[in-house]
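Job type: complex structure
Entries:
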Amino acid sequence: MNISRRQMLILLPAAAVAWESILAGTPESSPNYKMTEHWWSMLIDIPKCIGCGNCVRACQAENDVPDGFFRTWVERYHVTDWNLENPEVISPDGGKEGFPSVTEDADGKYFFVPKLCNHCADSPCTQVCPVGATFIGPDGVVLVDQTYCLGCAYCVQACPYGCRYIHPQKKVADKCTLCYHRITKGLTTACCEACPTGARQLADLKNPKDPIHAFLKTHDVQILKPQMATGAKVFYNGLDGSVR
Amino acid sequence: MSVFKESGHLFRLAALYAVGTLTFLFIRGVLVPKSFGQYGHYRGNAITEIAAHPIHFAGHQACDTCHTDVQQLKQSGMHARVNCEGCHGPLAKHADDPSVQPAKLDTAKLCVRCHAASAAKPRGFPQVAALDHSNGLPCETCHKPHSPAISAGGAK
């Protein structure tokens, strides 16, 4: 096959475009899902959490989270009555296998706090990414494009909630996707599916029929670190003031 | 018009600049992914790629389509709102192909994980000190996991 210089110059960019579409592949789509019609969040009902660790195990199974790293985890707080600023917090292996039993403490209280990515509307982690590998999707879920991430870990430092880590094998940033592959297909997240007491509930703030609206109107609900103005979308009911 | 008398080198410079710009635009066109900037400063296709990850938990709706008997039994008991996969684990493979059998469960470990007594748990939640409570007997001797209350005639 003889190709003239002119033909070669025309063919090169065409080949580049073709190669790019091969690299990009054709991802499977979720046909009935419209990104602009959702604004995802989660409700965590502290008085219902029993610290069983079902959510942590479910998350690891669903998302192949490596051992020792967590997209969601459970903390147990121990607060003595006068010392709100210095709670004792434990989370053995992320609370994956539950917590050691404790007996009633006359001077204080114990409670569990499940944590996960807050899917902030003004998230610090997406703002610091130098390459545009992490972003807030049109439906309010903070995601990482792992094929584009450099692994510089700026976002890991930027997250005020400690919800990100560098994946030990992939060497890129990893975090809770709010089970994006599930919620786009009409399922709930793995942690909510596995929670036995309904302490975690996925909520869609753009859906007027979502029970979250009634709940937010009738309960005293907080977000974590409101002073940081992150626009966190994980709402905590019955949250103690000592929780950081 | 002496200014333009020796303008040849300016044209060469302009041509060089034009070639440089075109080369930059070409390389940029090749390197920047096509869907970058579709929704914002990121690769738009990343969203559909993440949405295409495989599912491991089938969801209780999938369980209910076949296991209607268990679902009805569960409805009447205290575990009505505990989803199947909360105890049985991720079973999307079983939902896709029923010949894939789920693993047997260890109730001694499973029940205790939720029901072991601890002052950290909510007051109203049923809790027992496992050893004192059952004297070492397995939980399912008295309690059926799908409907755990002990009925008058004793549990089966």
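Summary: The longest strand of chain A covers residues 72-80. The domain at 124-174 of chain A is CATH 3.30.70.20 (Alpha-Beta Plaits).
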